[in-house]
Specification:
The protein is an alpha/beta fold. The chain folds into two domains: 2-96, 3-Layer(aba) Sandwich (Udp-n-acetylmuramoylalanyl-d-glutamate--2,6- Diaminopimelate Ligase, Chain: A, domain 1); 101-221, NIF3 (NGG1p interacting factor 3)-like (Udp-n-acetylmuramoylalanyl-d-glutamate--2,6- Diaminopimelate Ligase, Chain: A, domain 1, 3-Layer(aba) Sandwich). Helix content is 36%, strand content 28%. The protein is built from ten helices and 13 strands. It has helices at 4-15, 47-55, 77-88, 98-102, 108-115, 143-154, 182-187, 202-209, 218-221, 223-236, and strands spanning 2-3, 27-30, 35-36, 38-44, 60-65, 92-95, 119-127, 130-142, 159-162, 167-173, 192-195, 212-215, 240-243. It has a six-stranded mixed sheet with strand order 7-8-10-11-12-9, with helices on both faces. Strands 2-6-5-4-13 form a five-stranded mixed sheet, sandwiched between helices. Strands 1-3 form a two-stranded antiparallel ribbon. Helix 5 (108-115) crosses helix 10 (223-236).
């Protein structure tokens, strides 16, 4: 058992959540039980996740995509139903958005780069003045090999735009919906850009910029950091932990 306040303080400090500007409200978003026996982790706040977490006996739910996004919102409709469920069952909800994207150890992008054994890792991907991803180097590795490794690691099927070198030496990774940062990879003359989801301009950006792009899905590209953070909490506190996978193909 652990004090919920202690768990949240640890997460806030470890992820430096108060130091990173973000549209998301990072930290405790809904207060519930003061004592925590089980912490459930998930990618995105949803009623389905909440129901499954409550059934699993959770006291605290930690997600990447929370409910509060920097603006007041009336307690109506789906938003009200989600909040009402948490309050009814005395569930705490905490969320960490950009702090989990950019963390050098448990962040999604750091985890994805480690999965392909990248070296010389450094920050990449300016988003509102903050680097939220990472870039690195690999030893002349076939593109198909990297695709296979990332698909296996994220348990997904990737969308691939193969307009760059077939042997990869340099790559950048920014998970989630970061296709707008792809031109930064072109400017740096990288061989490969990895993200979650893409939009219509990406194909021709890749063709004209001689760049490969791998899209792993927004949801699946952002499981790695949640899982790594879960392991960190499990080691730090005497609480049970569980990842609930509300599968999402997007």
């Amino acid at each position: 058992m652990a004090n919920c306040e202690d768990v949240i303080q640890f997460l806030n400090t470890y992820l430096k959540s108060l130091q990173i500007p973000d549209a998301s409200y990072n930290g405790l978003q809904v207060a519930g039980a003061k004592q925590v026996n089980r912490v459930v982790f998930g990618v995105s706040a949803s009623l389905e996740l909440f129901r499954r977490a409550q059934k699993a006996g959770a006291d605290l739910i930690v997600v990447h995509h929370g409910l509060l996004w920097g603006q007041e919102q009336p307690l109506t409709g789906l938003f009200r139903e989600r909040i009402a469920f948490l309050l009814k069952h005395n569930l705490n909800l905490a969320a960490y958005h950009l702090p989990l994207d950019k963390h050098p150890v448990v962040g999604h992008n750091a985890c994805l780069l480690r999965s392909v054994k990248a070296k010389e890792v450094r920050p990449f991907g300016q988003y509102h003045g903050v680097d939220i991803g990472f870039e690195g180097r690999v030893p002349n590795r076939p593109l198909a090999s990297i695709v296979q490794q990332l698909e296996s690691y994220c348990q997904t099927k990737a969308q691939v735009f193969a307009f760059g070198p077939q042997k990869i030496k340099s790559l950048a990774i920014v998970s989630g919906g970061a296709h707008s940062l792809l031109p930064q990879a072109i400017e740096k003359k990288l061989d490969l850009f990895v993200t979650g989801v893409v939009d219509e301009p990406v194909q021709e950006w890749c063709r004209e910029g001689h760049l490969n792009c791998i899209a792993l899905g927004h949801y699946n590209s952002e499981k790695p950091g949640v899982l790594a953070l879960m392991q960190k909490v499990a080691k730090r506190f005497r609480v049970a932990t569980e990842f609930i996978d509300v599968k999402n193909p997007i």
